[in-house]
Amino acid sequence: MPVKLGKDTARVLLICGLVSFLAFLVAFFYYRHKNRSADPRVREAVRWLDRSDELISSGKTMEAMRILDSASHIFNALPAYDGSYEHGIIHNNRCSALLMTALYDSSLLAVEKERLLRLARAYADTSLHIYDRWMETWEGLGKAEILQRLSPGFEDLKGDYSSRRLDAMLQNRTDQIEMAKMETPRRMSVAYTNLGTICRHSEEPDSALYFFQKALELWKHNRTAASNLEVLKGGKPVKPGVIESLFPPDKYKTE
Q1: Which residue, 245, 214, 250, 246, is CA-closest to 229?
Q2: Domain extents in the chain
Q3: 4: left (phi over 0), alpha (psi -120 to 50) or beta
Q4: Biggest CA-to-CA distance, the chain
Q5: What is the structure's pLDDT at 162?
Q6: Model pTM?
Q7: SS percent in the chain: helix, strand, coil, step 5
Q8: pLDDT at residue 237, as a whole number
Q9: How many CB atoms lie under 10 A from the CB of residue 115?
Q10: For the structural domain made of 36-246, what CATH number should be given?
Q11: How far, in Å, CA of 136 to CA of 140, rounded?
């Protein structure tokens, strides 16, 4: 026997359905706009960068290195991305991949582990150098100045896209730069944490101590750096509380 809904229940269900439909429309057009405003020249490289994080976390480090090389090739071929923060991400992800292999591949000989740690350190150093120079260039610029500086790098797209589409791409890249200015200190903190970990496993405790402290200066919510620092001082690893586990700190908050 069919269940009859009361007027109030039917009204609530109708409202819920409309809200869900409107939310779907908003999300659809938002992501459609984001996809259309993304720089098509680097779309695949950005996807590879995101994928490399997943591969490193799952221990597939060699595959991660391969797609990082592919992403690097794309960014290196474009003058608009010369010295961009993406190069810093690529180098530090390479460091993370090699560090994971050095620390967790039990089949490695001592000399092979040492070689991987040295190479990982070189990548971390390079990433920090890129981040430093990038911040010097972009940190003090406002949106109008950023847009003006970016414009020449998109000139080669004029023949393929409308001026409206090109303006959307430039605005999107400007927004990415603005976000990266907030996010880069956290990325630098991660690179310093990698350096601290490398030094800790290379029997350089004083250098490790310095790098972990530097990481926490840049991002005080860096749980990995805080935990390693406590262990280095003879304490126990830092574990997040229940509330912090459920609601981790905003990764963009560096203070």
Answers
A1: 214
A2: 36-246
A3: beta
A4: 77
A5: 93
A6: 0.82
A7: 75, 0, 25
A8: 77
A9: 14
A10: 1.25.40.10
A11: 8
